[in-house]
Design brief:
There is one protein chain. This protein has two helices and 14 strands; from the N terminus they run ββββββββαββββαββ. It has about 180 residues and is mainly beta. Strands 1, 2, 3, 4, 5, 6, 7, 8, 9, 10, 11, 12, 13 and 14 form a 14-stranded mixed sheet that branches. The protein starts with 8 loop residues before the first strand and ends with a strand.
Length: about 180
């Protein structure tokens, strides 16, 4: 089983700003659960979460991590770069990465489905999308944490680490050294 996280600095790659996720499609409405399945729970009932966290008072910081794994760090198919965006409302993984997790870890040793979802929309447009919530092991160097991600039809990045991740784990960004401290 994975060890507890440490507070080591992580290598970053600088990224120019981007204003929207690409290639999204409308989400599905929740279905009625069967008597054998737990009820599906909306994390933010009655609320449509914007992809951007508009209430965040900090200036926007965004970059790509040098390398991370969602799932087993022994599987090169699960290696990616996470896009950290302090103004993204939540953390997301792409449908493509979700499909790779299912294929390369079918016994769900490093990820779990939940009975939770939330409704979100993008910074541009009014279309609402449904994001199924997963718990996934995120690994960057010696830092390891189980974190929740919404599955979204994004194409620009496999993984977006949003305000929820930043508030829980991000201690400091050292831009000159291209390091983040978790």
């Amino acid at each position: 089983m994975p060890s507890h996280p440490t507070n080591d600095a992580k290598k970053l790659s600088r990224l120019p700003p981007t204003d929207e996720a690409v290639g999204t499609k409308p989400g599905e409405e929740p279905t009625e659960p069967s008597s054998l399945e737990p009820a599906v729970v909306n994390l933010y009932p009655g609320t449509v979460v914007t992809l951007r966290a508009s209430s965040n008072p900090r200036p926007r910081c965004e970059f790509l991590t040098a390398c991370c794994y969602l799932g087993s760090s022994k599987d090169p198919q699960l290696r990616t770069q996470a896009y950290l965006d302090t103004l993204a409302s939540n953390s997301f993984i792409s449908l493509g990465l979700y499909n790779r997790l299912q294929k390369h870890d079918p016994h769900q040793q490093y990820w779990n489905t939940t009975n939770k979802y939330f409704i979100f929309n993008l910074a541009v447009g009014t279309t609402e999308h449904r994001a199924q919530v997963l718990s996934v092991l995120l690994q960057m160097d010696s830092f390891q944490v189980w974190h929740t991600f919404g599955v979204a039809p994004i194409e620009s990045f496999d993984c977006i680490l949003g305000a929820d991740f930043c508030q829980a784990y991000l201690c400091n960004i050292r831009w000159q050294d291209k390091l983040m401290e978790l």
